[in-house]
Amino acid sequence: MSNRPDIEHWWAVEAMIASYNHVYQVIYKTKYEVRGPIGVSIYENAPIASFHYEFLALSADSQAVMNAVRDYPLPADREYVIDVFHPAPSDQSLKDTFSRFDHEFVRTGPILGLDLPAKATTIPNNVFKATTIQQAESANNSLTSEGERIHVQTLRDKHIHSFYVKVGGEAVGWLQLVTVHPGVGYINQLYVLEKFRKQKLGTALVQRAHAQAIELGLKRMVLIPSDMAMHLYRRLGYRPLLYFSAFRPMRVSIWTKLKQDHPAI
Known about the structure:
7 helices; 265 residues; eleven-stranded mixed beta sheet; Aminopeptidase; alpha+beta; single chain
């Protein structure tokens, strides 16, 4: 992946892309490829997102990115988004540029990072690592009540680490740590069952992930937070490193399309 000198923390993008694509490949057999100025995550019908392809801007040249997207052999019935990375929280020029390319703005999100200490100071005793099918399925007995699960395919992968937190003998939350990128850990999933929130269980899961990352010799962490978990990560020392904005093709209404095809209407 080429470096982006316009973005100070480009390493965080590299770690993020490598990490989540690795998980999806293990679980759903998805694919990732680089086509010049773009990276392409190929999800097809995997239950990951509402779109089938995700194009990632690896270049600061928006025109080159858009040309590569348009040249990509995308099936006619497939939907996609384009993720564009930028150093400031808001970039109106990007929105204007992609609007001219007939793409509408979807959302902007932060990518958070943390420098890990040399030694873990807290290792919670109510958080456990799932290393066997029996452990994963036992945790899933309660996690699946809210649509969560530890996928057993990941247990054999040395770069995917799943932890669950227990209350009263049952799993009430889990976290997935990915360590495929050199020197950087990525938190791909963090979830606590609704009735057990605000009990510092999410904090315990993250602290256990940090301990694992430090044990493996990693120096930094990176993640994309949900709105709900943002305050937790900020409290643990995570800070925004850069941002991404997602764009999708403008959706033309049936009425607009009729008027385009039949100007007399």
